[in-house]
Design brief:
This protein has 456 residues and is α+β, with helices and mostly antiparallel strands. The chain has three domains: 226 residues, Bira Bifunctional Protein, Domain 2 (BirA Bifunctional Protein, domain 2, 2-Layer Sandwich); 103 residues, no CATH class; 90 residues, Anticodon-binding domain (Rossmann fold), CATH 3.40.50.800. Helix content is 42%, strand content 18%. The protein contains 20 helices and 16 strands. It has an eight-stranded mixed beta sheet. A five-stranded mixed beta sheet has the order 13-12-14-15-16. Strands 2-4-3 form a three-stranded antiparallel beta sheet. Helix 1 runs antiparallel to helix 7, helix 1 packs across helix 16 and helix 9 runs antiparallel to helix 11. It starts with 15 loop residues before the first helix and ends with a helix.
Length: 456
């Protein structure tokens, strides 16, 4: 007996209804990307390992799926490395390519490789799958789509303002209210590290601070002490642990904390500029919130940092994020090209819309009408009518086999096809069609022109 097939953990199959819902989200995002002036590009699903490795920190590197070289991939491994059974030593010998971890680093590679063909500032969007060897859980998969938009070649803070509006435009179109766009600035975090004398431990400090809402103040302090941050420095952070209130009041508190840090002051100025602009322009459904514990992507973010939270009450992690990177292309030799970008988490957004019942009913509608098959003669007449319906952009199909009518009706119900047409001998004689509404049970005899009108 053949073994039942399966798929790898962290991956999924999607049925027609799920694909329709995902397509609805993608199309909504794509339309807003293009409305804001972004151009589409695509990059390969896998890159050279050297393009990806070392760009995401140690944790990110561990989550990159490596692809074994074709052929006898062990032939280039030294005997000593092979017998040592140390995978880190032989990886570079047996794997020269890897599945992309995100869309940002491949985009940086694209910009450098095609710099002579690009007009700067360059606004691109990309909607493609990425892969991470993460532990699967709700809202976290090993294969998932990212929907990214980036601008490179401009240091203007108006880009950050535009991205906040873009987030708001997408979530407004999806009818997803109560979304929070959290913002911080790398310069703020660097300034805080400077004030507490932990410039050399910036990553350790921010990783611990980022856990404040998850593990609490005491455990964050303990982790900082464990990383070598002095107690006197942690004492200076006390106002930070109590930082609450609206955007403006938090900014005023930060000015007091960072009054000796030029880097920190610069970060405050940038945040104030963005907040003032957003307050003037307004948002439809989303809200902008300052979160000084936000520290995602510090390996390449240099200015603003974004993270988008689902509405309160929905158990879901971030559904979007991004930030400013002043020299991401520098890792590939192209210096001084500033960029900023955001990403939408398609899979998590889909789960949120599902939980809140926000998908429009029309999203899952596939075939609109099914023609019952009464035999070859009737089937040919049905296909002639179906050809006319399709020409009028009406999705229609013929049941392929001449089976019992009840079985064909059951098929329509299972497929959730809203209408059925009966074209039998009597209808062919009178040149009419019997149209049945599968929801109400009502049926009527109509001409082809009326049939087209009713189904359009």
């Amino acid at each position: 007996m053949a073994q039942k097939p399966s798929i790898p953990k962290g991956t999924r199959d999607f049925n027609a209804f799920e694909v329709a819902k995902r397509t609805y989200i993608i199309q909504t995002i794509k339309e807003r990307f293009e409305r804001f002036g972004f151009q589409p590009i695509e990059t390969p699903s896998f890159e050279n390992s050297e393009t990806l490795m070392g760009k995401y920190g140690d944790e990110g590197d561990r989550l990159i799926f490596k692809i074994l070289n074709s052929g006898d991939f062990l032939s280039k491994v030294a005997d000593t490395d092979y017998h040592a059974k140390d995978s880190t030593k032989i990886t570079s010998s047996i794997s020269e390519k890897a599945l992309r971890y995100d869309l940002t680093v491949p985009f940086a590679r694209y910009v450098v490789q095609h710099q002579n063909e690009i007009d700067f500032p360059f606004k691109r969007y990309q909607i493609q799958p990425v892969w991470r060897a993460d532990r699967p859980q709700k809202g976290r998969f090993r294969e998932f789509f990212q929907c990214d938009a980036d601008v490179v070649g401009s240091t203007s803070l108006w880009q950050e303002v535009e991205f906040i509006q873009l987030y708001d435009a997408v979530f407004s179109a999806l009818k997803l209210e109560g979304v929070t766009i959290k913002i911080n600035n790398r310069k703020i975090l660097s300034g805080i590290a400077e004030v507490i004398g932990a410039q050399d431990k910036l990553i350790d400090f921010t990783v611990a601070l980022d856990k404040l809402d998850k593990i609490g103040e005491d455990k964050v302090k303990a982790e900082m002490l464990d990383k070598g941050i002095l107690p006197s420095g942690i004492d200076k952070l006390q106002p930070l642990f109590r930082l609450k209130g609206d955007f403006g009041s938090q900014i005023e508190e930060l000015k007091s904390i960072l009054n000796t840090s030029e880097e920190g002051k610069k970060g405050i100025e940038e945040l104030e500029f963005i907040n003032t602009a957003i307050c003037t322009l307004g948002l439809h459904t989303a809200s902008l919130q300052l979160d000084v514990t936000l520290a995602r992507g510090l390996n390449y973010y240099t200015g603003a940092i974004f993270e988008v939270s689902a509405p309160e009450g929905v158990a879901m992690g971030s559904i979007g994020g991004g930030g400013r990177y002043d020299d991401l292309t520098g890792i590939f030799g192209l210096k001084d090209v500033s960029g900023v970008g955001i990403s939408f988490g398609l899979d998590r957004i889909a789960l949120v819309l599902e939980e809140l019942n926000l998908f429009p009913e029309t999203v899952s509608h596939g075939v609109k009408v099914l023609f019952i098959n009464f035999g070859d003669q009737e089937a040919m007449a049905s296909l002639k009518a179906i050809k006319q319906l399709r020409a009028h952009h009406i999705s229609a199909e013929l049941f392929p086999d001449n089976k019992k009518t009840i079985k064909q009706f059951n098929y329509a119900n299972k497929r959730e096809i809203p209408f059925v047409v009966l074209l039998g001998e009597s209808e062919m004689t009178s040149n009419t069609f019997t149209l049945k509404n599968m929801k109400t049970g009502d049926q009527e005899q109509v001409s082809l022109e009326t049939l087209i009108s009713k189904l359009s």
